[in-house]
Structure formats: C-alpha cells, structure tokens
Amino acid sequence: xxxxxxxxxxxxxxxxxxxxxxxxxxxxxxxxxxxxxxxxxxxxxxxxxxxxxxxxxxxxxxxxxxxxxxxxxxxxxxxxxxxxxxxxxxxxxxxxxxxxxxxxxxxxxxxxxxxxxxxxxxxxxxxxxxxxxxxxxxxxxxxxxxxxxxxxxxxxxxxxxxxxxxxxxxxxxxxxxxxxxxxxxxxxxxxxxxx
Length: 195
Known about the structure:
By secondary structure, this protein is an all-alpha fold. The chain is built from 6 helices and no strands. The longest helix is centred in the first third of the chain and has 34 residues, at about 5-35. The model is unreliable at about 190-195 (pLDDT under 50).
C-alpha cells in the first residue's frame, strides 16, 4: 500500500462525503421549512431540484475516490470497498428518482435503504479488517448506517417524518466523522510502499 495514494484517495472520499452530508442536511431543512411555511416555494425548488443535482455530483466524486482507494487493497478488503461503491450507485439512482414527484420520493427512500444496508455490511467487514488502516472510522460509519436505516423508515411515515430528518442529521455527522477518521488513520510508513 502506498501511503500517499491512500491519503489522496481517502481525502477525495472524505470531501465527497462532507459535501453529501452538508447537502443532505440542507435538503432536509428546506423540506421542513417548505412544509411548515407553504409560501416558501423557493425552499421546495432547492430541496427537490438543486440539492439533489449537487448531491449527484458529490456522489460521483465520492465514487471515484473509492475506486482509487480500492486499488490499494486486495481480497476481502477490496470487495468491501467495491460494495460501498455499489451502495453509492444505488444512492445516485435514488436521488435521480427523487426528482420525480410523489412516486419518486418512495423509490428514493427504498433505494437509500438498500444503499444503507449494503454500506452497513461493508463497514461491518472493514471495521474488523486488520489490513485496513481506517478500522476506527469504519466503526463510526457502521453506527451511522444503522441510524440511516432507522431514519429512512421514519421518513416513510407522514406525520412523524420529521423524526427521520433529525435521525439522518445525526447519521450524516457520523458519516463525516467516520470518513475523517479513515482519512487520518495512522499508516505503517507514510510516503513509502508497504505490504
């Protein structure tokens, strides 16, 4: 494993995850404000169109970073990283479907649940993987995935979906912290190729 390459790839992943988390929180806020104040039509435009398009851009950046990181590992570690990439694809598909009124929102939540479950399995494998330096970060990401699954369930319940938004905000903070820990994980030898 090349330490410099690991830092560069995990840095791209972190920046993508940071952008996604900030946009997801903003999207949730715009949705809540638009629902509470019907005259705020601009908030709904941001929540339904602008934020999702920006999220797709962040997911692509995140996806590319995972591809670079995957090149540094083999076996089960690489397989788990590829699964996180697959989860990102499901998330991108869900966001694109979110742009379709009514039915798109339901499909969006279903695909987010699928992505969260795939991520949960992958993070679970990587948190116990001795060959992956960012195990501590994966433990945080595992917990964040559990929260995302719970949050998505609440998003489907009309009268209490605000709870889902609150849970997801906490989960997104966990995503930021988790990928930051992965990026800053201690490596055997900085700047050198190590086995």
